[in-house]
Amino acid sequence: MRLQTAADDSVNYRYSGILVHPTSFPSPYGIGDFGKGAYDFIDFMAAAGQKLWQILPLNPITAHGNSPYQGFSVFAGEPLLISPELLKKEGLLTEQDLQNIPDFNPVRVDYDAVRAYKYPLFRKSYESFCQKDDPELQTEYDAFCTENDDWLSDYCLFMALKEEQEGLPWTKWPESLRNLTSQKRAFWKEKLEDEIVYHTFLQFCFYRQWKALKTYANDHGIAIIGDIPIFVSPDGSDVWANRKLFQVNEKGYPSSVAGVPPDYFSATGQKWGNPLYDWKAHKEDGYRWWIARVRHQLEQADYLRVDHFRGFEAYWEVPAEAENAISGVWRKGPGEELFHAIHKALGEDLPIFAEDLGMITPEVEQLRDSLGFPGMRVLQFAFDGGESTFLPHQFNTRNCICYTGTHDNNTTVGWYESAPEYSRDKVRRYMNTDASSISWDFIRICLGTIARYAIFPVQDILKLGADARMNIPGTATGNWTWRYQDGALNSGMAQGLRQMTELFGRQV
Length: 508
Fold this sequence. Notes:
This protein is of the alpha/beta class and 508 residues long. Helices cover 39% and strands 11% of the residues. The model has no long low-confidence stretch (mean pLDDT 95).
């Protein structure tokens, strides 16, 4: 479902919404998922008059850091988001299977504990699926396999081989597995057939549940903003199966990796470690892999936030052996050519939001504006000092998204409590407030800007402090764990948010 929109500033469609990842939803199973907590959240959004639900990437996370921006595949979905409750409703689990739920922390995800609980449940549901005589379900499964074979077969074989190799990164596998011949591929597909089908089943369950949830959101007038990380994980099926598209040697090791130079978040920059694209190879291939990626994502979401958009104009190349990102250099990206190729292949305007934070140059702005993509304005950055372009009275276009903060920021309450006094003083004077409800002051200002889109993290609705922060960039552990409890979002909040949204002419 796409809302009315236009890059033209003379058109004044106005929408607002909430940023929250499904892992943060209430659930008895240790992590938010696609079950009741997700549906309750959509009901809250509808009651609150919100039209946009922004999520983080849904891809399967690696166990090292549990970041949604480091996944085993940019096409596959994270199995931990599969709802056991819905598997039970589908007849793939029993009431008895769900009787002994551990006493999980209701406000933090312990990923290892959740894996230890959910993975055996998934095995049971797989066994039920194999034994189940349900022609309709089998037909649906077969159709899913056929429609997604271009990525699904590589991913499921990769995951089966990874288990065969006891979880080792694929760069440490035997040479015969790093570089499969057609003969070896056929051998391993036969030997690991049951494990491959198991991972295929998990993807089927994931996308079946997500499709139902997305349909429910769309039917309630809510569009979903997905998220595309610009880079892929070094230990994933994307690089393993498409080596020629990345700057890696035949063993999979890069000489340089992705990152960003020193910025607001880190004085030494951020060395992400992701392999870089071989843009020449992508161009020679007609950008086929990127076209497939965007097409697939637009089947799962209505809009796409492209993370680190500036990397398409120029990206920061960091020596693989460097301790940090300071010694990196800028390299030119594919620019407009990539997006024109995607547009031509998909035959529609690209509903893309550009994450254009950080070191943004006139060249990046020109690329963003030439493509008509809205950029981001983050209110927390507006009060760091000086006459910031993020201050609402400095907005020079409607075609942008105003955020109180993003998943990489502190919560607004946490930011205000730790900000220097000159920033807090400017906030109080600018917003004419005593700051007793500072996160809602930010929401009100965000809604009142000329920005076509206004988005705020759910933590700001809940008035939560720094302990509810989702991510601290540049830190490897302790992130992506925050959850809210059942009942935290109530009808009073929905009514207040709806009234404020109507006041500022957002489409309700």
